[in-house]
Design brief:
Layout: H1 17-46, H2 48-51, H3 58-89, H4 92-110, H5 116-119, H6 122-150, H7 158-183, H8 188-195, H9 197-201, H10 203-214, H11 221-225, H12 227-232, H13 236-243, H14 245-275, H15 280-308, H16 310-333, H17 337-363, H18 371-388, H19 390-401, H20 405-424
Helix pairs in contact: 1-3, 1-4, 1-6, 1-7, 1-10, 1-14, 3-4, 3-6, 3-18, 3-19, 4-6, 4-10, 6-7, 6-18, 7-15, 7-17, 14-15, 14-16, 14-17, 14-18, 14-19, 14-20, 15-16, 15-17, 16-17, 16-20
Length: 437
């Protein structure tokens, strides 16, 4: 018998009232959480080395700033495991509300932190703790937001529906880069004294809006159908590790492809371009434009993956990333806003091609009873390796060699491994979610 493509949710169209509300919740909530998370990434590139690591040389301060950034990525798979456990046992909706509150509290407190000049080493320690709380929160956010949309959607439109959670990343990046760019219009003295705090404090307003939307969304129908089975799974992470290890490894490697692009193009490149002489506000404005390109390409590729399959679109995106790796690095090295704009816009556009089908690809690797845990572990572990440490590794490789050649070679090699993982994985477009074992 051919695999079923029958709808797995209660709505037969993405345009029905309930489905529109679900997609809006997935997108807006995810955008707000990624605003908070990527706000830190942007500030790590242009602010924190001047505020929390003032006793270090510029190169070491930048490396230390990216180190605190990595701490959040290390916490993401832990958050995926914790929130995934409860998402697979008691439901997706409650996890989404909890993760959003946690993120809002952590981000707001970062905006109120005293500097190293005021309280000494306590400041960077607190910064790391709060960054890890952010990581825990976003670790639970992505899986829940993605599954609420995917598990309500008709079978033939799962890829597009699931992409709304992924769309939160570029949308949040746009908001974060735009907010910090606006703050940099202040004189440097005022910006580093208090201006950088304003985007963090805005999180209170955004999270409040997100909570109102999230509380109105219904629980996943697939989870409700299999709730008794989910309750019998005492520890979902053990089930994932013992029964689905191959899919877990393949999912992590595939997800790393777009997250290495994120770490280099949207984080490391910002700091490096500014160091090479590019004007700071122009660079941040370019990130906003790049996020638009990523947003559009994510939508397009998500639509295409429902028609042609997840694997062909993922393959096309990874091959494009490999071909553009050295051109991107050379453009960033030019030290001009124009060069950076072209590099990051094309780079994040390619990232969007990979990101579009990625959510559905990962979700279709696991059964309903452990889908939250499995897909979250894939995405969040990849974020730790691919995005969390990439800026630090890139900074170290460039500092060690004085150029970009080694960085480009290592990046292409990593993408090649990701491509092989795509080719080894099963195509999930026509799989019946309810029948996955």
């Amino acid at each position: 018998m051919a695999p079923s493509t029958a709808p797995t949710g209660r709505d037969d169209s993405l345009t029905s009232g309930p489905m529109r509300r679900i997609l809006a919740s997935s997108f807006i909530g995810s955008a707000i959480e990624f605003y908070d998370f990527m706000l830190y990434a942007t500030a790590a590139a242009v602010v924190f080395s001047e505020v929390f690591f003032t006793d270090l040389s510029p190169a070491i301060a930048t490396f230390a700033s990216f180190g605190t950034l990595a701490a959040g990525y290390v916490a993401r798979p832990v958050g995926g495991a914790i929130f995934g456990h409860f998402g697979d046992r008691i439901g997706r909706k409650g996890v989404l509300v909890t993760s959003m509150v946690t993120m809002g509290i952590a981000t707001t407190i970062i905006g109120l932190l005293p500097t190293t000049a005021q309280v000494g080493t306590v400041a960077p320690v607190l910064l790391i703790v709060l960054r890890m709380l952010q990581g825990l929160a976003v670790g639970g956010e992505w899986g829940g937001a993605m599954l609420i949309a995917l598990e309500h959607a008709p079978g033939g439109k799962r890829g597009f529906a699931a992409s709304f959670a992924n769309l939160g990343a570029p949308a949040g990046s746009m908001l974060a880069a735009g907010a910090v760019a606006a703050a940099t219009l202040l004189p440097d003295e005022q910006f580093f004294a208090w201006g950088w705090r304003i985007p963090f404090l805005l999180s209170v307003v955004l999270v409040s809006i997100g909570l109102v939307i999230r509380l109105k969304v219904a629980e996943s129908p697939l989870f409700q159908r299999f709730e008794a089975e989910a309750q019998r799974r005492r520890i979902p992470i053990v089930d994932v590790l013992t029964r689905h290890p191959r899919n877990l490894v393949l999912g992590i490697l595939v997800a790393m492809s777009q997250l290495t692009v994120s770490g280099i193009a949207s984080v490391w490149a910002v700091s490096y371009a500014v160091q090479q002489g590019a004007e700071k506000t122009g660079v941040l404005n370019s990130k906003t434009l790049a996020a638009v390109a990523m947003f559009v390409m994510c939508l397009v590729s998500a639509r295409l993956c429902d028609r042609f399959g997840r694997k062909p679109i993922l393959t096309a995106g990874i091959v494009a990333a490999m071909l553009f790796a050295f051109p991107l690095l050379l453009l960033v090295q030019s030290g001009t806003v124009v060069g950076f704009t072209v590099a990051v816009t094309v780079g994040q556009g390619i990232q969007g091609v990979i990101l579009g089908p990625l959510a559905a690809f990962l979700a279709e690797l696991f059964p309903t009873a452990v889908r939250f845990t499995g897909s979250s572990l894939c995405f969040q572990a990849a974020s730790t390796i691919g995005a969390g440490f990439t800026p630090m590794i890139a900074s170290a490789l460039v500092a060690a060699t004085g150029g970009i050649a080694l960085l480009g070679g290592v990046w292409i090699a990593a993408l090649l491994v990701c491509l092989l993982a795509v080719l080894a994985a099963a195509e999930g477009r026509r799989r019946d979610l309810a029948a996955i074992e």
